[in-house]
Amino acid sequence: MWRCINCGNEASERPITCIKCGLVQAGIGTEEKYTILEEYCTPLSLIMRNNNLDHYLIDACAGSGKVQAHDRQELIDGSPLIMAKTQERVEEKIRNKSRRKHAQSIFIEINPKTHDILTASLQGYPNCEIIRGDCNQLLPNVLDRIESDIWKPFCFIYIDPFGLGDPVIKMETLKGVLEREYTELLLHLNLDAYIRSAGNLVNLDSPDDRKKKLAKSHYDTLELVLGSDQIEDFCSSWPRWPRGMKERQCLNYYLAGLEGFYTYIQHIGIPVGSRRPVYYLIFTTRNKTGNNIMDRIMQKARRKGAVSLKRWFRKN
Which helix (H) or strand (E) holds 305? Predict the structure, then answer.
């Protein structure tokens, strides 16, 4: 029996979000993901502040700020609080305390109940803006608003949807971010949801109208995820991929949609060290320093992940 730590609501199965109060529930590997996010945001913001550069930390699928831990009755900091507390961590590390604070955080959340908890969670944190709505529509507007012809601040954008997103995170939205000059992107790709949708494509020509309709719905979803310029080729390629290669090929196909925009693209499976990750964190940047920092963070996570999985191995 699952019980919401915030409102006491109970259910036989753990939901993604409490339907009564909107509190987000952490999943498998969520805390590993948050560690990677925190370990990147702090040096990023420290470098920016040391160089007197304005910068924004943007969470496009923000959630509730505080989230319920996956394996215990405890509230932990979600991505918005990690970003909001970055200024405090930088303040502890920076030597020249007189330097002006340049970091601002913007959070987008579509669920009204979750939005209310997020707003309460961020009380007392300066330079935070909270917006309710669909990030596919709002994120381009936010970036347009903070940019101008003569002033283009650096933006680190984190997109962490449930599944493929509700609504679906469009490749069109991502490309709109990637085309901008001073942006970095850390993206959650739910490979399981992606593959489940692809598995229904075999029924696009089914004589069964129900199966055909469902397959068309999954096709439309994948068209949004991959982009209209890739969907037809993906549909023809999917059946030819060997069963054991479908996960890797799906990941590569998605990454191909991001290539051409950034010099550097990295990814890591979550849970770290798993042979079959539930999802991937994908990082993109044009900046060599940022790439080097994230590379060290992901390598560190992989080493820790390998150690944590040793308990499952049998001794010879």
Answer: helix 288-309
Taking the C-alpha atoms of residue 148 and residue 152, their distance in angstroms, rounded to an integer, is 6
Separation between Cα atoms, residue 249 and residue 90, nearest integer Å = 40
Neighbour-count burial of 157, counting CB atoms closer than 10 A to its CB (0-12 exposed, 13-18 middle, 19+ buried): buried
Alpha carbons 316 and 307: distance in angstroms, whole number: 17
Q: Which domains does the chain have, with CATH numbers?
A: 2-190+262-312 (3.40.50.150)
d(CA 238, CA 236): 6
Residues 6 or more apart whose CB falls under 8 angstroms from that of 313 comprise none
Can you tell me the distance from the alpha carbon of 179 to that of 65, in angstroms, rounded to the nearest whole number? 29
Tell me the two tokens of residue 170.
């469009």
Which three-class secondary structure state does DSSP give residue 12? coil
Regarding predicted confidence, which is higher, 95 or 294? 294
- Structure tokens given for 177: 């971010």
Tens digit of each residue's pLDDT (9 = 90 or more) over 184-197: 999 999 888 888 88
Mean pLDDT, residues 272-280: 87
pLDDT band at 306 (very low <50, low <70, confident <90, very high): low
Residue corresponding to tokens 């001073």: 182
Residue 314 has pLDDT above 80, yes or no: no
N-to-C CA span, the chain: 38
Exposure string (b/e) for 60-70, b if CB count within 10 Å is 16 or more? bbbbbbbbbee
Q: How far apart are CA 30 and CA 71, in angstroms?
A: 11
Quote the tokens at residue 267: 């990814």
Model confidence at 56: pLDDT above 90 = yes
* Residues with Cβ within 8 Å of residue 118, at least 6 apart in sequence: 62, 63, 64, 65, 80, 107, 109, 130
Peptide linkage before 271 cis (omega within 30 of 0): yes
Per the document, the length of the chain is 316
Element (H, E) at 42: helix 30-50
